[in-house]
Amino acid sequence: MKKKIKFVGTFIMILFLAVSYYFDGAGSNIREIQEKENTDLMLESSSKVLREKENEKIIIYITGEIKNPGVYQVASDDRLINLVELAGGFTKKADKEKINLASPLIDGEKIEIPKKRAADEIKFIEQPGENGSSLPDDKINVNRANRKELEKITGIGPGKAKNIIDYRDNNGFFTSFDQLLNVSGIGEKTLEKIKGEISLR
Fold first, then answer.
1. Residue 148's closest CA among 156, 173, 195, 138?
2. Given this model, what pLDDT does residue 109 score?
């Protein structure tokens, strides 16, 4: 009788362990399926966002030393190089060294491709003005200038130049001069001083 009870007890224990193992395995499989479904949903959502971004169009006006100046519709994630190619490329007179072909594009903006200066024109610009200083060069585009270029602006040192670039990277291009007031280190007095030296496009 004792042997029979012992056998039944052992059988029940084995059965319990088997059932527990089965349900643990089933639970693990369910979790794996749920995780896979969540991953698939995330990938599908990301792909949808990318497709929408690719399909989004913007309008740009390009002029100056470009073979076919005019208004063009391009993808929102295109760069200046894509627009230049679409417009037929640069003319022989284009000053390519002043163009950043990797620049992103802004909907509704006007881009003017500069012309190379003739030797006598460069010489004139380098001559000192009445106050002994050089005549002012082209305005600095705060949406496209790198840190060294930004440091050429009156009152903008390495720190403020970095702050401008950081703000631009986090918030997009400046669409008005007043937005520069949101940059750390730039107040109303500084903005008034530099307005004549900068441009947004």
1. 156
2. 87
Could you tell me the CA-to-CA distances from 195 to 51, 67, 72, 199, 200 in Å, in that order? 39, 32, 29, 8, 10
CATH number of the domain located at residue range(s) 139-201 in this protein: 1.10.150.320
pLDDT in tens, 50-100: 555 556 899 999 998 999 999 999 998 999 999 999 999 999 989 888 888
All residues at 6 or more sequence positions from 155 whose CB lies less than 8 Å from its CB, including other chains: 190, 193, 194
CA–CA dist 200, 191 (Å, integer): 13
Q: What separation in angstroms does the CA of 116 have from each of 15, 106, 119, 123, 128?
A: 89, 25, 9, 13, 21
User: What is the per-residue pLDDT for 105?
Assistant: 86
Q: Can you list the alpha helix ranges (DSSP code H) found in 56-187?
A: 80-86, 119-126, 147-150, 158-171
Structure pTM?
0.42
Tell me whether the CATH fold assigned to 56-116 matches the one assigned to 139-201. no
Q: CATH for 56-116?
A: 3.10.20.600
pLDDT at 16 over 50: yes
Burial class (CB in 10 A: 0-12, 13-18, 19+), 154: exposed
| pLDDT, tens only, 171-201 | 888 888 888 999 989 888 888 888 888 988 7
